[in-house]
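ok so I'm stuck.
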Amino acid sequence: MQTKSIMIAGVGGQGTLLACRIIGTVLLEEGYDVKVSEVHGMSQRGGSVVTYIRYGDKVASPVIEKGQADMIISFEELEAARWLPYLKKGGKLITNTQQIEPMPVITGNAGYPKNIVENIRAKGIDITALDALSLALEAGTAKAVNVVLIGVVSKLFDFDVNIWEKALEACVPPKVLEVNKKAFELGRAVPAATR
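replied:
not stuck anymore, here's the structure
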């Protein structure tokens, strides 16, 4: 199998690293060679953060170049726009519709771009956009946005759901496991029409 690339983009504190670990665990369990990058970016709260997952029969490097990502999972709208050049032609973009204002917007030096999802869709890009924050809150915590998105992503792979659940159990601290399991189920239940 040729190497596939997944990019996870978010803002510091949103759990991009946990999402990366869960997906990486699933892919390893499925027998792929998996390379995962470290966090790139400002990992303190508020900064842009991106992690890479590459998988296949034999993966040489975890680095994803522009135009190489088969899938981008974005935890916030502006991050979807920021990393869009990395998506390959025919790739899939999944984004949370939440808007977290970056520092230039907070300080008044810039405005938050309008109609990000509509503009991406107008380019003919395969985008799934959903309010993952509302689903995370329904599950019991705003911190589960990452796992809601993993639930959505899990439907795009032909893997048994039990493998995803085992990866959650392996990666998520026991005290928040039930909330995250619920978040995962809510993500998996997102109607195909949203996709």
